[in-house]
Amino acid sequence: MIQRIQSLYMLLTAVLMAFAAFKPLAHITIGSDVSDLFAYDLIYLEILVVISALLPFVMIWLFKDLLTQMRLCFAELVLLVGTQAFFIVYLKRIENGVLAQFSSADVFVNMTSPVVFPAVGIVLMLLAVMALSKDFKKINSLNRIR
After folding, report:
1. Three-state SS for 109?
2. Within 13 A of 93's CA, how many CA atoms are on the CB side?
3. CA distance 56 to 52
4. Cα–Cα–Cα angle for 126, 130, 136, nearest 5°?
């Protein structure tokens, strides 16, 4: 039973969040200097991203307990929404701080693709919840027949 579609959704979420932990979130260009901004630059953000990456792996191995798996999916959804909000707030604060400190025209803050990984993870977790609920309904209908 481990080859269910929700396991694939959970695995993809875990991989995306692992990439978000180690890929740069933004490139800050000041004149000719380029600096990268990572999630591990802020410890709270790194903890949130690592937990968001590890929880789907735990959920995959709880395939025999659908109710616990569904509850953990909702917990993961909350973590992903929090991570996405943290990404946006953190990057906007960095951008405003850099622009306020260097008021020249050659300052650029370019966000990279890992900023949207939590949003993609939210969609994947919602798909996993829907697949889990279908499995739960199938099991309940089989129990009624007996």
Report:
1. strand
2. 7
3. 7
4. 140
pTM for this predicted structure:
0.86
Element (H, E) at 36: strand 33-38
What is the rounded average pLDDT of the residues 37-44?
86
User: pLDDT tens for residues 73-116?
Assistant: 999 999 999 999 998 998 888 888 777 777 666 778 888 999 99
Residue 116 DSSP label:
G
Mean of pLDDT over the chain: 87
CA distances from 60 to 46, 74, 121, 128 (A): 22, 14, 15, 11
Task: Say which residue the tokens 């909350």 belong to.
Answer: 78
DSSP-derived 3-state class of residue 146 = coil
Contact 52, 80 (CB under 8 A): yes
Q: What is the Cα–Cα distance from 98 to 90, expressed in whole angstroms?
A: 12
